Amino acid sequence: MRYDLIQQLAFPIDPATLGGILRPYQACTFPSAWKAALARTLYPDRSDDDIRRGVPLWSLTTAFAAFQPDIIVDGNGGGQRFWLGGACRPSDDVLTALIHSGITSVVHAQARRYPRRGIRVDGLPDLLAGINPSTDLDWRQVPLLADDGQFTEHTFRLLPDLIAAHLAEQEWAVDHGGVATSRFQRIATADGAELMSWPPRDHPRRTRRWSFSYVVRLSVQTMPADPTPYLYVHVGLRRWASRKVFLNNNDRALSVAVKAPNTWDDGPLPPLIARARLQWRPGPKDKKEGRMDWTDDIVEVLSRLHGVALPDPAKLCADPLAHLPQPGTSAIGGFEAGVFYRTGFAHKHPVGDGVSAKDRWRIFDNLADALRPHLTPNGLTTRAHGVTVSPRPPAKKDGIRIPTTAVAAAVGRNITIEVWWQTSIIRDEALAAISRTLQMPALEPTGTDGSWRTANDHLTVTVHTRELGALASDLDINKEITKKADRYRDAASRRIRQVNDWIAPHPTSQPTFVLVELDDDKAFTVETDPKFVLRTAAGRNGRNTQFLTPTKDGETDANRTTRIEQSLRELLVRQAGVPARATRLGLDDHPLPDTTRVVAIWLIRKNGLQTSSFPIAVCCDPRQPVIKARLFGERTWRPMREALLALSALQNEHALVPAKAAAEFIADVIDQLGDLDGPTLLINLAQNTRGVWKTTANTNIRIDSLATTTEAHVPAAQHPHVRYVRVRTNLSQETTQHYAYAEHKVEEDDGTTSTIKIIGLSAGLWQPATSHGRTFLSTPDKPATASGSSPKGSRIEMRRARRKDGTEHDVLDIASDVWNPQLVEFFVGALQQDDKPAAWAAAAHQYRYVAAHYDDPTLLPLPMHHGHRAGEYLLPGHLLDDAISEPT
User: Fold this and answer.
1) Element (H, E) at 37
2) Which end of the chain has fewer CB atoms within 10 angstroms, the N or the C?
């Protein structure tokens, strides 16, 4: 069914209507004296002038989430930001216990991790004696409304918590169409606020119950060029471990929801469910003495010093159902607790993942009723008509096919493909797939062992197979090196030299693409994974790489064949820079010129979202036979394959560019594009670039400006060939969820009519009502690989379904995974005179459908997708060092 309306799960917020929700908050900042004392303890090897600006306080954050979830922890408490906030000032005794225990945990952990610093654990009593929360914390009332009645900077952090508390006080519950009721309670979360249905719902299967909860996340966000704040709602599903917790990989911690019999410190708001973390602690080498334990030492410290305890982690993991409540029953020891289920557990959860459009509508509709008269949902959003996208290529019954004409045009008529293999089955199937996917004659031996060749009128391909052997094994870590980054650099350098020696007898003088068989990251630890090392070594030897895993247990021949073919397509199409599939851009009645190029700016980040980065620009030009990229420090545009290889060679300051220099690069790219003939659509991802490209932040947006800093003034008319669209995804919940909506009139037997609401999903470009008419929303078609579950299904409510023979029956969609498309926001930031905003937003939407290496829509428009994937070739931040180099 085609829908012409969607409902965003969002509420515009008017401060004047929140009288029954807003209440004063108490907050404090982190004392500078504490920070200085902690820094002197943790960094005794540094002078006062050389002490780091920050100190690690993860134990304190963990402590408040687990033991005092009513307290909001925000930022680092510096400047105008608060550190701790709450509806009332917490008990000094409780704060002292948490803070002293947290600091004790940090000092002990840092002393173990960095023995060379000389951290004195015996100095803890003196340190703690100088930390007195009752006198040192300056608690003040935080205003949520300014004198003019508008929100303050604290509103975005505190308001979701207040709304969640209001719903908890009202004992908010969701009626699932008269079938069942879900009651929601608050649960601690790092950002925004979260409510969760509790007790969980059970899905009985055989002799065991399998449990799940609905989760409602609240956050306050803004829209581009719109001063109104919005409450965004995200509805999710949380499944609970129901059998003994056993992980195939113990590197990651497990999250646990914990509800104590009584709150440690009663406050005026309904108590939250706390959140804690478990992790496997291995015993001595070669001894089976490992155990499950709470991640942070603070749990042990609090238990020892203050008698505050959590459930026994070993028992919780051995029988998680014993602590998981059911309506009308009590959990063991008075504690209610649940271990978050995740993929990777030894057992598969029979409840599918995700929330259907119908369940999302049901919960949001109930939420809207609960929040009236304080908040009213956004109005329905209408479809932008006349937007045609490239159709999905027809299903390939005989496998994936790669056009040799396009490959030859992008990289040349002669190429080499190498297969670095571990298992003969992958080697043999890869060899068979090369000629099949390229639709070329069968490979013929060259006379050299492990070498073949094939050719047609467009392309000549030489193929070599090389057994990886020990090069595919774990990196050899020198445990005598105490610093983790130094250990990795040492191991990586040695492996790179080994790969160089292995490759040296096989130099290449033509474009070379390597298919690498390597286990996935689950087979390695963070320190021992050789993937980045192999890619870097290959890149510095002129080889582009694509990884694929060995045959998996239970994998069918057909699935393995598809994996190999798709890996070849990633290698020979995406990494070769084969251009986009041809498409008509713009609106049906307002098309854009056929020569329109699309250029994306992307910042490759390797050590945090807002620190140094490496900027690149990627260009899809319909007049060029190859996608090209421009790297920082250059003004030439390299073919994509060459740009990727150049990234693998970067080190030190050449790979991490300061924000000012990155902004200057972006401004220079805009100037360069302005000098080109023909129209250019420039795009960027707000969450990726706004730390550098300051004018892309919502509060700094100036319509029809191409300036990259708030101080500069660059009207779009200065570059008459350039248009600009800013993109946002749901990263950090910055775009909301949605469902498609329609109404159907039904005539009853008595002659009256009734209205039936029809809920579903729909692909398209949508335009919400705004004052400027520049904001659009993009939803994709359902991928061919997505499950066949119906958006009209539910985990709780039955639906009528039709069998193949035409008869109907009742269906409960409990087991199917649900495909949940996210809204991608397009803000048309800069246009030229007489342009239609919808035409340029449509072009950004259409560029999600044109990837030559992928049949389904991509999340990001194609050149931005290429920029994102290019980051694979730049080493992680802790490896960007001279030590990661081969001898010259």
Assistant:
1) helix 32-42
2) C
pLDDT at 115 over 50: yes
DSSP element (H, E) containing 666: helix 659-674
The CA R_g of the chain, rounded to the nearest whole Å, is: 29
Whether residue 883 has pLDDT greater than 70: no
Residue 773 has pLDDT above 90, yes or no: yes
CB atoms within 10 A of CB 58: 14
Alpha carbon distance 826, 776 (integer Å): 5
Which class for 438: exposed (0-12), middle (13-18), buried (19 or more C-beta within 10 A)? buried
- The answer to whether 229 and 206 are in contact (CB under 8 A) is no
Using a 10 angstrom Cβ sphere, with 0-12 exposed, 13-18 middle and 19 or more buried, the burial of residue 745 is exposed
d(CA 611, CA 880) in angstroms, rounded, equals: 14
| Closest to 387 in 3D by CA, of 741, 683, 776 | 776
| CA 302/CA 68 separation, integer angstroms | 12
Q: State residue 271's pLDDT score.
A: 61
In sequence order, what are the residues at sequence separation of 6 or more whose Cβ sits closer than 8 angstroms to the Cβ of residue 687? 609, 728, 729, 731, 732, 734
- Are 600 and 845 spatial neighbours (Cβ–Cβ below 8 Å)? no
Model confidence over 343-363: pLDDT tens digits?
878 788 999 999 999 999 999
Q: Which helix (H) or strand (E) holds 647?
A: helix 640-648
The alpha carbon torsion through 848, 849, 852, 856 (nearest 10 deg) reads 100
Angstrom distance (rounded) from CA 590 to CA 583: 14
Instruction: Please give the residue that has the higher pLDDT: either 189 or 229.
Output: 229
Measured in Å, how far apart are the chain's first and last C-alpha atoms? 64
Output b/e per residue, 119-152; b: 16+ Cβ within 10 A. Answer: beeeebeebbeebbbeeebebeebebeeeeeebe
Q: What average pLDDT does this structure show over 618-631?
A: 97
CA 5 to chain centre: 27
| Whole-number Å distance between alpha carbons of 374 and 639 | 55
Report the range of poorest mean pLDDT among 223-237, 370-384, 518-532, 783-797: 783-797
Q: What is the pLDDT of residue 221?
A: 93
Question: b/e string for 681-712 if b means 16 or more Cβ within 10 A?
Answer: bbbbbbbbbbbbbbbbbbeebbebbbbbbeee
Give the residue from 108, 564, 160, 158 showing the smallest Cα distance to 300. Answer: 108
Mean predicted confidence (pLDDT) in 69-73: 79
**Angle, CA of 278, 30 and 690, to the nearest 5°:** 80
For residue 753, give both structure tokens: 């009519």
Does position 167 have pLDDT exceeding 80, yes or no? yes
Mean per-residue pLDDT over the chain, rounded: 87
Cα–Cα distance measured from residue 503 to residue 497, given in angstroms and rounded to the nearest whole number: 10
Provide CB contacts within 8 A for 807, sequence distance 6+: none
What tokens does 433 get? 């797939």
pLDDT surpassing 80 at residue 12 = yes
Q: 214 with 174: CB under 8 angstroms?
A: yes
Q: Are 685 and 727 in contact (CB under 8 A)?
A: yes
CB 199 within 8 A of CB 258: no
Q: Which of 263, 285, 286, 287 is nearest to 274 (CA)?
A: 263
Could you tell me the two tokens for 578?
């084969």
- Report which residue type is found at 780: P
Query: How many beta carbons lie within 10 A of that of residue 668, not counting itself?
Result: 15
With bands split at pLDDT 50, 70 and 90, how would you rate the model's confidence at 297?
low
Q: What is the pLDDT of residue 270?
A: 55
CA distance 56 to 78: 14
Residue 237: both structure tokens together: 């599903």
- Tokens at 257, concatenated: 């929801």
For the chain, how long is the longest CA-to-CA vector? 90
Predicted confidence at residue 52, as pLDDT, reads 52
25, exposed or middle or buried, with CB in 10 Å at 0-12, 13-18, 19+?
buried
Q: State the sign of the Cα–Cα–Cα–Cα dihedral 185, 186, 188, 190.
A: positive
pLDDT at 79: 45
